[in-house]
Design goal:
single chain; 8 strands; 43% helix; alpha+beta; 12 helices
Length: 330
């Protein structure tokens, strides 16, 4: 229970509504729609029910009203919103959605003789563009099909006395995926950083690595002392508008020397045995020791077989569906 309490505190501390006021000038315009405890319970129950094919009439009626109030806020962004829970998005539910597949195929049509690396760029772009929505019903359908959302609701419901969950509604900003980065802050020091979409090679990052690092490091120095995380240890995801030389905070995530708080360490390896969490990874001294700051990017394109082995499981199924026999050579 002690471990669960600690995890809950760290997760809640990184919820967007906990830091938005302090960092409003460093991030995107955001609206908040409260999720009551009753509504949270209904969402949690409906996720489980839909997984088993059950129908819950009472909970469905509650969700209909939730959709109405969420739509009223989404309408403030007529070109589309990105909606997430306080802690995380439902991006796992959009991985192989019809919308993602449609956009993916459209992007592929613009590429001649695409490599596996180019296909991965296209599917990641499609995956994000599929989250640009104008319908609250579509958002709710995605939430009720998301294991990530259900897991976060489950944790919050276990501490219902401190319940504070919201729909985070943000104006959708199409960030080129090559300009998203994950950075690791320990004791108020930026210790490591890497491209968010690791495994993929982006030539523009190789050309502009130093400039990007300088832009982010400068922005971090401006905001680090006002980040309302008590131990000043967290993960921050950045977006860089390279043409305008602007840097934005996308979100904060819990992090620390305690099983990483469930946050991916991306291109850094903190454990040799991720199941046992053995704390013997080769990169531990970058975050928790005396090694200097590192900014990691992919510097060359991996071969197709290597990329295929690293590919997210559901996308392998999607690739088989679209490319069929062509992948048997991989």
């Amino acid at each position: 229970m002690k471990k669960l309490n600690y995890l809950s505190e760290k997760v809640r501390e990184a919820d967007l509504e906990q830091w938005y006021e302090a960092l409003e000038n460093f991030t995107y315009e955001t609206q908040f729609v409260e999720i009551t405890l009753e509504e949270g319970k209904a969402m949690h129950s409906l996720y489980e029910a839909r997984m088993t094919g059950k129908s819950l009439e009472k909970e469905e009626l509650i969700i209909e009203k939730v959709i109405q109030k969420l739509q009223a806020t989404m309408d403030k962004f007529p070109e589309g919103s990105f909606v997430k829970l306080s802690s995380r998005s439902a991006k796992d539910a959009s991985v192989a959605s019809k919308r993602t597949i449609t956009i993916f195929k459209e992007l592929l049509d613009k590429i001649d003789n695409s490599t596996m690396n180019q296909k991965l760029i296209a599917i990641n772009r499609a995956h994000i563009l599929a989250l640009q929505l104008t319908s609250a019903k579509e958002v709710m359908d995605m939430f009720l099909g998301s294991e990530r959302i259900n897991s976060d609701l489950d944790l919050a419901l276990q501490f219902s006395s401190t319940w504070s969950q919201h729909f985070i509604v943000r104006k959708f900003v199409p960030i080129p995926i090559e300009y998203e980065f994950r950075a690791f802050v320990v004791n108020n020091q930026l210790r490591g950083m890497c491209q968010y979409y690791h495994y993929i090679y982006f030539p523009t990052l190789v050309l502009n690595k130093e400039k990007i690092a300088n832009l982010i490091l400068q922005k971090f120095e401006e905001m680090k002392d006002i980040v309302p995380i008590r131990d000043k240890t967290y993960v921050v995801d950045w977006a860089v508008d390279f043409e305008k030389e602007k840097v934005y905070v996308i979100e904060l995530n819990p992090f620390g020397d305690y099983e990483n708080m469930g946050t991916s360490s991306a291109m850094f390896k903190l454990h040799d045995n991720i199941v046992a969490m053995d704390r013997k990874g080769p990169d531990r001294d970058i975050f928790f020791g005396d090694k200097p700051f590192e900014f990691r990017i992919e510097t060359s394109e991996k071969d197709d077989i290597n990329l295929w082995n690293l590919m997210f499981g559901p996308w392998k199924s999607l690739f088989y569906e679209i490319f069929g026999d062509l992948l048997k050579k991989t």
